[in-house]
Structures are given as C-alpha cells and as structure tokens.
Amino acid sequence: MKKCSKIILGIATFWQSFYLICFFIYFSCSIIHGLTKLGPSWLFDSILSLFIVVGLNLVSIFMGIILLIIYIVHLLKNDKIKNEKRLMYLVFIIILGIFAMPIYWYFYIWKDQMRNRVKANYRET
Predict the structure, then answer these.
(1) Long-range contacts of 72-77 (CB under 8 A, 24+ apart)
(2) Do residues 109 and 7 make contact, with C-beta atoms less than 8 angstroms apart?
(3) What is the pLDDT of residues 19-65, one digit of tens each?
(4) Domain boundaries in the chain?
(5) Burial class (CB in 10 A: 0-12, 13-18, 19+), 67
(6) Per-residue CA distances from 109 to 4, 43, 53, 97, 105 (Å)
(7) What is the pTM of this model?
(8) What's the Cα-to-Cα distance from 58 to each of 16, 55, 77, 88, rounded to whole Å?
C-alpha cells in the first residue's frame, strides 16, 4: 500500500472516533440548550443544523461500512499475523470497530511501512 493511501485510510479511520466525540458533544449541548435555552439558538434550532448533522451521520455510517470491509479484507490477506491474532482482531474489528481499527491501522498498516524501510536499510549495509 502506498504512503498516500495509508494516510487517507488513517484519516478516514480516525475520523470515525473524532466524529463520535463531536456528535456526543453536540447532542449534549442541544439537550442542555433545549432545557435551559443557553447558547446560540441558530446552532440548535435551525433546520440547516439538522440537515448538516444528519448528512454527517450518513457519511460517517457509509464510511464505517466501507472501512469495515477494507479492514476485514486486509486482515484476512495479511500473512504477517498469526491465526490466533487474526481471529482476535477480526472479532475486535467487527464488534468494537471504532476502537480496534485505529490500533490495527497503526500496527499493521502504518508501521508496516517503517518495517519495510528498516529492512531496506539493513540490506543496504
């Protein structure tokens, strides 16, 4: 996998966690605004904000499904992982995808590039 593809996959992977945190903050603030009327009303009462939140949710859901497929295919094709670990990662990616995908990305997609560089430098010397 090329470095650019790894970076794009990493951004999409970490977007899921980032958006989940942002959504819960927005949702909590909208509940507080609904109860106390504190905060800017245009942010919580407008139909535009509803469309933006629903649109971002739909994009994140579809992105999550695509990422799930990408990670499962990569996991099953990765010969560097033992079968026991492969089964563990498969279960974690399916059940706890939003937390397991960034870990898998870092150790088996991003760090793989570093391992290849170290091996190439070792061979040259």
Answers:
(1) 74/108, 74/109, 75/104, 75/108
(2) no
(3) 999 989 888 887 787 777 766 665 666 777 778 888 999 999 999 99
(4) 3-124
(5) buried
(6) 12, 38, 31, 16, 5
(7) 0.78
(8) 12, 5, 29, 29
